[in-house]
Amino acid sequence: MPLLTFLAQLQETGRVSVSRAVESVREDSAEIHKRLEDMDLWAREEMAFSPPELSLPAAQWAATTLYKACQLLVYRDLDAEAVRQAFSQPCPEAPGPRTAYSVDMTFRYLPDLITLARAAAEKDSLVAELLALARNWPLSSVGVKNLGDIEVSALLDDSSLRQLYVDRILERRDTSRLADPRVRAAIQEALGAFPDLSPEMVKALAASGVNSEE
Hints:
This protein has helices at 2-12, 30-44, 56-74, 80-86, 97-107, 110-120, 125-136, 153-156, 159-172, 181-191, 199-207. Helix 6 (110-120) runs antiparallel to helix 7. The N and C termini lie far apart (55 Å). The longest helix is centred in the first third of the chain and has 19 residues, at 56-74. The mean pLDDT is 91. 58% of the residues lie in helices and 0% in strands. It is mainly alpha-helical. It has a domain at 2-143.
């Protein structure tokens, strides 16, 4: 079961292998759901407050989409139609905190995948599709630059996702996320009386008119 193996590799080492066969991702099994639930428990241990509930349909959609994207990165001879087909299926659950959290079980690896895809071919259609995912799922794409305007209300309205989002911005020094005034306020709050934790972010806040020492 290639998708099940893929998920296990993601969770255990972060280094994955994929099969060329497209049908290899057409799996819907109790074993995959169990693995996603294990990843959920692992993620919750690292988060503040109470994260949203896991949506298995959203989580499995994201896992399948990421698997297909990795196939396209490895097997470069697959054509533009294969790229289009790989990303044609929308998320089965409407946007919101629960969905954002659930797809992040696997989409948290999007920045690494985008870096690899850009290195292979910056103008490739795969890169364009991955950047579209990055814009649609901002919690998972912190660190990916030049995404333009992104909607983060669902993240900021949930205390657990808000904290995770802020932590990732600080960890990855993604000053591009400061365009939203609500995010700037959240970063300011997180830094508090310890601006030395992130001098680069403090400088970016100052440039936007926020005094990190207030």
